[in-house]
Amino acid sequence: MTALEHGAPGRAARGRKVFTKAQCVKCHRFQNEGEPIGPDLSSARRHLQRKEIVESVVFPSAVISDRYRMIQVRTKEGAVYTGMPLPGAASDDKLVLFLSDARKLEIVKERIEEQTVSKVSLMPAGLLDALTSEEVADLFAFLETSKVNLPAVGTRNDLHQAQ
User: How buried is 29 (Cβ within 10 angstroms: 0-12 exposed, 13-18 middle, 19+ buried)?
Assistant: First the structure.
């Protein structure tokens, strides 16, 4: 983790592809890409240190904002589901959970027996495990572009900087 914390060299243009490969886009936005389920990473480096971002990826359940906290729901039938409530999708008679596999699950509120706060993040642990060290460096180089609000990756300026 030390190499990541101190900025192992990587290429932002390649990191954009890793952002998709590592499934980050399923829950996070970066500029105009991705889903707004988890924190928007477009400006993450302007208010977080690199070390904090690395720790959040490596240990996703260490610190969880209330805004992104998951709940565990046990139904009257005994089924147990864990996910993040989606307030905009819920209604008076149903709860909608965003599950860790990026599916949405609707539960009729009358079926809910118990609902508790989860201590586990929606973001799965081990996301970097399937990546090479070069891909990890590229991913963090891509996230670093949020520090100075560079143009969207893939523009002429970014491609020139990545070479």
Answer: middle
Class of domain 66-117 as given by CATH: mainly beta
- Give the Cα separation of 18 and 94 in Å (integer): 36
Q: Is 80 exposed, middle or buried (0-12, 13-18, 19+ CB in 10 A)?
A: exposed
C-alpha–C-alpha distance, residues 20 and 61, integer Å: 22
Coil/strand/helix, residue 83: strand
Q: DSSP H helical segments within the chain, as ranges? A: 2-5, 12-21, 44-47, 50-58, 133-144, 156-162
Q: Which of 34-38, 62-66, 70-74, 145-149 has the highest mean pLDDT?
A: 70-74
